[in-house]
């Protein structure tokens, strides 16, 4: 694993040593309790286009800047791939399992076979190429930053659409993360089909909704 202090230049160093093309991989939605996990892989090539000079960790960019970079990345990257894992799939084997599996799928979906894969934060095995985990890579390694942007914008757009299908939860605002407003909505409405039922807070909300439903049914029978 590469330490954060060693990050600058790691991608360009791989190219100089003839180990490219280099793919960066990152995900969005790992910590959410509703909506999909989205994983992206990007190959930018040895020369970063000037239009992508502002790349950074997607969470540090404004929504408008992410949207602008999203289109440029898809136009200028040598190859890119996005994978979406739905909540019911996450519930089967857990988010970490599907995060790793999604990274492998995203890299396998690239048009060009990478010579090296860089992941953000933790090591991942099973790529058809050597790989390296880079702490803080989403903020310092261009291909990982690009993957971070593709994953987040794809997921954010999906969550805005979900908000129209499942109103009342505020999904367009908090994007499925466990904010106080989201927890309040869960307590009032119970989980939607897009909530991750294996998560403890969602299970608690489901139990509360079921208990409330039984109480209301008892009241109707008694009236």
From TrEMBL:
The gene is rnhB. Its cofactor is Mn(2+); Mg(2+). The keyword Cytoplasm applies. It comes from Dietzia timorensis. The lineage of its organism: Bacteria, Bacillati, Actinomycetota, Actinomycetes, Mycobacteriales. GO terms for molecular function: manganese ion binding; RNA binding; RNA-DNA hybrid ribonuclease activity. It is an enzyme of class 3 (hydrolase). This is Ribonuclease HII. Gene3D superfamilies: Ribonuclease H-like superfamily/Ribonuclease H. Keywords: Cytoplasm, Endonuclease, Hydrolase, Manganese, Metal-binding, Nuclease. It comes from the Bacteria. HAMAP family: RNase_HII_B. It catalyses: Endonucleolytic cleavage to 5'-phosphomonoester. It is found in: Cytoplasm. InterPro entries: RNase_HII, RNase_HII/HIII, RNase_HII/HIII_dom, RNaseH-like_sf, RNaseH_sf. Manganese or magnesium. Binds 1 divalent metal ion per monomer in the absence of substrate. May bind a second metal ion after substrate binding. Residues 20-211 form the RNase H type-2 domain. Its EC number is 3.1.26.4. Endonuclease that specifically degrades the RNA of RNA-DNA hybrids. GO terms for cellular component: cytoplasm; ribonuclease H2 complex. Its main location: cytoplasm. Belongs to the RNase HII family. GO terms for biological process: DNA replication, removal of RNA primer; mismatch repair. A divalent metal cation binds at residues 26-27, 120.
């Amino acid at each position: 694993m590469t330490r954060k202090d060693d990050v600058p230049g790691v991608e360009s160093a791989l190219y100089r040593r003839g180990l490219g093309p280099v793919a960066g991989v990152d995900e969005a939605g790992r910590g959410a309790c509703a909506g999909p996990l989205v994983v992206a892989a990007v190959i930018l090539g040895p020369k970063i286009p000037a239009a992508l000079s502002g790349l950074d960790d997607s969470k540090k960019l404004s929504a408008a800047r992410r949207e602008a970079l999203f289109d440029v990345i898809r136009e200028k990257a040598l190859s890119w791939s996005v994978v979406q894992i739905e909540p019911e799939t996450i519930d089967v084997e857990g988010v970490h399992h599907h995060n790793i599996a999604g990274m492998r799928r995203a890299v396998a979906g690239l048009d060009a076979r990478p010579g090296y894969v860089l992941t953000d934060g933790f090591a991942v095995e099973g790529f058809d190429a050597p790989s390296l985990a880079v702490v803080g890579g989403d903020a310092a390694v261009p291909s990982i930053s690009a993957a971070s942007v593709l994953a987040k914008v794809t997921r954010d757009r999906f969550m805005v659409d979900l908000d129209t299908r499942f109103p009342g939860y505020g999904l367009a605002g908090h994007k499925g993360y466990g904010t106080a407003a989201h927890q309040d909505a869960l307590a009032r409405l119970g989980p939607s089909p897009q909530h991750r039922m294996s998560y403890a807070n969602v299970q608690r909300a489901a139990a509360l909704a079921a208990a409330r439903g039984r109480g209301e049914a008892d009241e109707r029978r008694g009236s």
